[in-house]
Design goal:
The complex is a heterodimer of chains A (175) and B (292). Chain A is mainly α. Chain A has helices spanning 16-38, 41-57, 67-86, 106-118, 122-132, 138-145, 149-174. In chain A, helix 1 runs antiparallel to helix 2 (41-57). Chain B is mainly alpha-helical and 292 residues long. Chain B folds into 3 domains: 7-55, no CATH class; 103-123 and 256-291, no CATH class; 129-250, no CATH class. Helices cover 49% and strands 5% of the residues of chain B. Chain B is built from 11 helices and 6 strands. In chain B, strands 1-3 form a two-stranded antiparallel ribbon. In chain B, strands 2-4 form a two-stranded parallel sheet. In chain B, a hairpin with a 2-residue loop joins strand 5 (259-262) and strand 6. The two termini of chain B are 97 Å apart. Classes of the chains: A mainly alpha (175), B mainly alpha (292).
């Protein structure tokens, strides 16, 4: 269930130009964020479309400066709804299956990391993506994901510990 | 302050850029104290995703997300109202196949009922009494043979059960007007039943009672009449027996050909044909309407 974000204000209006600027600046980011988690291009596109549709409908209430946060919030909740609907937990690439092909090169390390991230649950994955790709603060992530700042910090640290342990394990195997 | 127990939390906050300048400096100083902490920090840094340029994902069909002023153009409300159309009323189909079947069944039952009614009526009307003989013992009035009693006297005699009205045969049997075998034991006069009926001499109750009698009962009546007449003749020799003359009327036997016999039912052909004609005309009309 989508909860209306707290950054909707009355008496503020987004112009057509500002809206189109938002499309230019944030559509790729939102799309990437959703695609990384859902692993489905069609779903990601639909979610982005819906998020921008909602932004347009509420353009008179959303401040232009907070449009990015609004878009991510809407997209995140739509994605969660979608995942619940499909009852699927995306584990596209198993970490263990790729373990034998590990090398220490940076590109391969990144693939390894991405595979490890795919093993995280959607919330942890969203936290990592919002933090690392989008550079949101704990507070902003909390607003987007409807979590408190301390919760964001705890969940994110837990996710990083999992990733660190995976990487340590792989390094030992390759050594 | 950072120490051996909480360094992991500081390291993660460090890579998340959530520490202020003082805290960052403290972490960097802590790492320098032991090499294992430096390795640990490196491992945490490896868990951080870095979006590279070759990994850039661009959304396709982004053009559909843009909004243009033309997209907000709306029609004038008056013009919109002129576009409204009233929904055509839904025509009810009256003659569905089931309804058609039901109406046909009702019509068939109605025809059957009318047929039965007509049959009953015709039976009553066409049923001819061949002989109506009465043996009236009248002590007060002396009447000569072959004289017809006045209507009031006949009624009186019928009421006190001294008269016997006899219907010799059903309608479909031809009655010989000259055949007096039935009436031979006594003197019977010819009575026109219709005449009596029209003159109210024989009321409908009597007719219905006669009608309900079976041929065997009729024969019994005949025997009774004979015995009664003989007793009367022997006992009262001096008394004059007043016999109501019976009138025989020849039945139109051609009507027999116009009747339709279905099992035990006898239906008037002309009436039946009229009904069938009406039903066929009704069905034809319905068919034409349906085709239209």
């Amino acid at each position: 269930m989508l909860i209306e974000p707290s950054f909707i204000h009355d008496q503020l209006s987004m112009t057509d130009l500002e809206f189109n600027t938002c499309v230019d600046d944030y559509s790729d980011g939102v799309y990437r964020f959703i695609l990384k988690i859902s692993k489905n291009k069609e779903d990601a596109r639909d979610i982005v479309q819906t998020a921008f549709e909602k932004l347009w409908v509420n353009r008179e209430k959303v401040e232009a400066l907070k449009a990015k946060s609004y878009l991510f919030t809407v997209a995140y909740h739509l994605m969660i709804d979608q995942l619940r609907k499909e009852s699927k937990i995306l584990m596209t690439d198993s970490f263990d299956e790729n373990a034998n092909a590990i090398t220490q090169s940076s590109s391969e390390l990144k693939q390894l990391l991405l595979a490890a991230i795919n093993n995280l649950n959607p919330t942890q994955k969203s936290l990592i993506l919002l933090k690392d790709y989008e550079g949101y603060s704990y507070q902003e992530i909390g607003e987007i994901m409807q979590l408190s700042e301390s919760q964001v910090k705890v969940y994110l640290h837990r996710a990083r510990l999992i990733l660190k342990n995976k990487l340590t394990h792989l390094e030992k195997m390759s050594a | 302050m950072i120490n051996k127990n909480n360094y992991e939390t500081y390291f993660m906050s460090y890579i998340d850029n959530e520490l202020n300048a003082v805290e960052r400096a403290a972490v960097e100083a802590f790492v320098l104290t032991e090499s294992k902490y430096a390795e640990e920090l490196t491992l945490f840094e490896k868990t951080k995703l870095h979006a590279s340029s070759n990994e850039f994902i661009e959304m396709e069909d982004k053009i559909f997300l843009y909004r243009f002023p033309e997209m907000q153009a709306s029609l004038d409300s008056d013009f919109k109202k002129s576009l409204y159309r009233k929904e055509a009323p839904v025509r009810k189909i009256i003659f569905t196949p089931n309804l058609m079947r039901a109406s046909l069944a009702i019509a068939a039952l109605l025809i059957l009922f009318i047929g039965v009614q007509l049959f009953k009526t015709n039976t009553v009307i066409k049923e001819k009494a061949s002989v109506v003989s009465t043996n009236i013992s009248s002590t007060n009035s002396k009447q000569t043979e072959n004289t017809i009693l006045p209507s009031n006297e006949v009624n009186a005699s019928l009421n006190n059960n001294s008269a016997v009205i006899e219907i010799s045969q059903p309608v479909n049997k031809k009655i010989n007007a000259t055949d007096n075998s039935v009436n031979e034991p006594f003197t019977a006069s010819k009575i026109d039943i219709e005449k009596y009926s029209s003159s109210n001499l024989i009321n409908s109750n009597i007719i219905s009672s006669v009608e309900s009698q079976s041929p065997s009962l009729i024969k019994l009546h005949e025997a009774q009449i004979v015995s009664n007449s003989m007793e009367t003749a022997s006992n009262e020799e001096t008394k004059n027996t007043a016999v109501i003359p019976a009138t025989y009327k020849e039945i139109d036997t051609e009507e027999e050909d116009r009747t339709i016999n279905i099992g035990i039912l006898e239906i008037d052909g002309a009436a039946f044909r009229g009904i069938t004609r009406r039903v066929s005309a009704l069905l034809k009309r319905n068919k034409i309407e349906k085709e239209k």
